[in-house]
Inverse folding.
């Protein structure tokens, strides 16, 4: 059974930093691309970033230069360090597994999400 469990969310002041993690299990993690998707209160889903099985990365313009997606295939873990956080980054952040090794692709599994709140 595929499981994706996010952690690391919380309350942070504008300009601060957080690091999200996603522990994956139930599949061969290194063979699949992974993504982060977020949903702000009252808004739709927004793709944030993706990383291929081989480590190629891509970012939404809204987070480029501030967020850095990475993966540790030995630990089956996906990361999203977030710097220079803004109030508009407030959202539930979801870890997702993609159908194949490359991005973009359809997302077939989602975690339950972790809430990030950026506020003074």
């Amino acid at each position: 059974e595929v499981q994706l469990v996010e952690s690391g969310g919380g309350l942070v002041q504008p300009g601060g930093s957080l690091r999200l993690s996603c522990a994956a299990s139930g599949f061969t993690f290194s063979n699949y691309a992974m993504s982060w998707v977020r949903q702000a209160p009252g808004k739709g889903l927004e793709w944030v970033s993706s990383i291929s099985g081989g480590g190629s990365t891509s970012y939404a313009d809204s987070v480029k230069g501030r967020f850095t997606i990475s993966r540790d295939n030995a630990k089956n873990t996906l990361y999203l360090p977030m710097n220079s956080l803004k109030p508009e980054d407030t959202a539930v952040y979801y870890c997702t597994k993609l159908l194949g090794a490359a991005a973009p692709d359809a997302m077939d599994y989602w975690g339950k999400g972790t809430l990030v709140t950026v506020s003074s």
